[in-house]
Structure formats: structure tokens, C-alpha cells
Amino acid sequence: MMAYDLLIKDAKIVDGAGGPWFWGDIAIEGDTIKAVGRLDDVEAERVIRAEGLAAAPGFIDPHSHADAVAPVFPELESLVMQGITTVIAGNCGSSLAPVNPELREIMEKEAKRWLPPELEIKITWTTFDEYLTEMERRLYGVNMAHLVGHGTIRIAAMGYEARDPTPEELEEMKELTAEAMEAGAYGLSTGLIYPPGCYAKTEEIIELAKVVAKYGGVYASHIRGEGDTLLEAVREAIRIGEEAGIPVEISHHKAASRKVWGKSAETLRMMEEARKRGVDVTCDQYPYRAGATSLATLLPPWAHEGGMEKLLERLRDPELRERMRRDIEQGLPGWENFVKGVGWENIYISHVQTERNKAAEGKNLVEVKELRGDPDEFTAVVNLLLEEEGAVGMIIFSMDEGDVQRIMRHPLQMVGTDALAASPRGPMSHGKPHPRYYGTYPRVLGRYVRELGVLTLQEAVRKMTSAPAQRFGLWDRGLIRPGFKADIVLFNPETVIDKATFENPHQFPEGIEYVIVNGVVEVEEGRLTGELGGKVLRKR
To answer: What's domain 59-289+399-472's superfamily in CATH?
Structure first.
């Protein structure tokens, strides 16, 4: 008689490979799945009777910003409770390492903008290896795999300068990239609408991507435009993959302005064509019509040169303010101008730091202008940024449901949150974050699988598990197979659904009954147990 630590009995196993579910049991010893199938002659210290719940591999989030909060909020509750067991963090060009010691204070200030006022991250590391070593001192709600951010590397080598790197600076950037890959990064991310990434030419990125390719890493990109310049931006991402010989992940893929609604048909075709030429390109997506980022992104790229402090200085200069207003009204070539793309009324405030502006949270910029008594929306944005020292988040309704579903259906898509993490209680319940923090995976399983039939259950699970595992080289996760890590989610396919809304985001989903991370039961009967099993993963 075999005896195991944990036995899951009578589950509908959706194993992650894309095939239909089958009835079976799962035996777990330590952090590893030992047996799958009809296991009648085994005993276990603990038995979970699934009684018809679906058992899937733990969800793997290919596009996470959980690294921005993990040092102060290792529980990462809103991620665990939606069934996530592993995240790929360090996206959109932004990671917490490497750090130029001279810029440590500025980096800490940048990091603080995403946190509630009472929390802060102390940066005690300089290299990527030191950062991961520091992170390894504790357990987390989910496993953390990290990308290194191009923006972070650029700042370490040349600050927030809006220019090309010198040959020496480019060499330093390549060395920092190699160092991060040696330490166990899974790839390089870019955020080409954000400073300083927006100042980089394609050739600079290709040079760094070539370094990453040598280590078998991935190039993940928040492309240079998801609105009017969408097609050119996708073309650039594919070109980087082709010339550097590296797999490409197009982050949170969308057509984000009225002008490009419907264009996802073309971007998906471009990806298919690229694959025929041997370029390994895929994309990820969250299941919502709105995105979220920082309010300062509404301002033109030149305004950001030198970092946030310099931006705030420029906002205090009446002449430069007028120039910004003009650029927003008229647009600049190649710049993703959100206001022009969607209108003030579709941009909402998600979080501020001070009590005095709390009333702005959850309101759109037309309402914020009226609430504040400012003469127009631009002035309201400027004043908010100044009063909050740049730490303001926004949510932008910019997409068409047709594009959301078209991208979701496509076999090259995988599901990702683009979220940090939150909790319905304590400091991490601040603001009105995007509901994807809590609802991404249950929303796909409930709304898009059960209610709308956009995906089958097995295809949705594949997009949440084996597809991202394969993409980033997590070779012992993403499938329910003997020898794989015991990251498992048990959910009720009949009831699973997101509860988080834009008005009331801090709500856990329904129907996620058990979440197991490396053999540790973190969610039991729909409630957090307080146990943590997540580890820092290093690419080897």
C-alpha cells in the first residue's frame, strides 16, 4: 500500500495539455505529483474529496507585476484566490534590479508610487542576482519567475536620458542583461510607451535581445503602441524576434482606440505569417475592455525625460504645461496619445496616495474636473499629478468586445492578468484597482467558457497552464503529470465566476475551491489557509 502526503480523489482532471477532462485521482508527495489516474490502493495523510470539481494545473500568469508588491505583501492574496500558482514578473520594461547605487533613492521612490502610502520597498541590492537572493529569503503566495526590465537596465546604465546610448553605455547594458540571465532571469521585457523605454530605437533592443537569446530567454514586450500605431508596433516586435533569433511574447495584446477596433484580425494574421517564417511569436491577454496604467502616461514622451521629479518640475512651468496640452490636443508622430484615442470620459482614476483626493477614485476625468472645480480635464490631470507627486493610477476603457473575443479565441493567445496584487483588507485594499487583480482567470472560466462559449474548458485551461509554461520554459509545471510540481487548482466549472467590478474591485471570485502551491494547500474550501508555498524560480 503506497502512502502519500496528499491525495485528491474523484476529480474531473483537465490536465493542461488541451484534451478533454477525465475522472481520476492525484497523489502528491512533498512538492511533487507522484501518480495520476484511478488510485484505489493508496493511502494519504490527507485526502481532498473533489466530488466532481475540476482539477487543473495551477494557473501560470505570463504577464504579472506582482514583483512590485511582493517584498511588502508576500501573500499576494488576490492572485492565489483566483487560482494562480506561478507568475512571470518584471514586465513592461520594469524590474526591481539591476540598480545603479547612485540612483537607489530615485528607484525606491518610483517603487513606492505603486504601493499604499504606509508601505515602502527598501532596495538593498544592486545586481539581479543579489535581488533574487534577497527575494529567496521568504515564501510567497505564488511562485515568482522574473524577467529583467529593459527600462531598469537603461536607467542603471544611462539614467532617464532621451537619447541613444553611447557604445560604452550599450556595452554596459549588454553586460547587465547577461548578468541578469546568468542569475536566472527568464528573459527581457520592454515597455516602449513608458520612459525610458520609449527613447530606445529598435536596434538597441535587438542588441540586448541577442544576449538574452544566447541564454534561451524570451523577449516580452509592451509594444510601442496599442492604438493608432498598433500595426507598426506589432511589426517591430516581430522584427526584434526575427533579427535577434528570440521567442517573442506580445504583452496584453489589444486594439486600444476606436480607430483600430477590428484590427486584431490583422495583428493575429501578422503573427501567423511570422510563425510561418520561423519566428516564435505568441501573445497574452486579460479578459476586459479596459486597461490600466499610471496617469502620467497621458503626457507626451518629452515631458518624462529625466524621470518623475523632472516631470513634476515641468508641470509647474506654465509654458511647458501649455506645450503638453497642445501635444495632447494635436498628437505627436508615433506617440500613443490615450486622450485622443478614447476621450477624457473613458479615463478613470484608480488610486491616489493622499486622503484629500480619495474622492477622485473610481471617477472619470470629466467627473474629476467637476469635483475639483478645475476649468478643464487637462488642468485636473496636472493638479492631481502635482498634489500626489505623480503617484496616480488610471483605468482606460479603450477596447471593443469583438477584438477581446477574437484575440482570446486564437490558439496563440494565453491568459494573463497584467496585475500587481491586492487584498480586501489591510493596506493592500487601497484604491480601486483594475478588477483583473482579482478576477482574470475566473472571468475567463465563467463568462467566456461557461456563459458565452468563446472557448472550451480544456482550451481555456491550456491557455492558462501548459501554454505559458512552455513559452517561458517552466518544464516541470503547467501539466498534471507524475514528476511535475504539485501546483493544482480545484474549481467548480458550474459556478466559477469573477466578482470584482470596476466600482467594487476588492472581491474574491466564486468557485475556486482549493489552490495548492508546491504541495502546500493555500486555499481550502474557498478560503485562504494562511500557508504559503510559493518560491522564487531561477531559469537554469
So the answer is: Metal-dependent hydrolases (3.20.20.140)
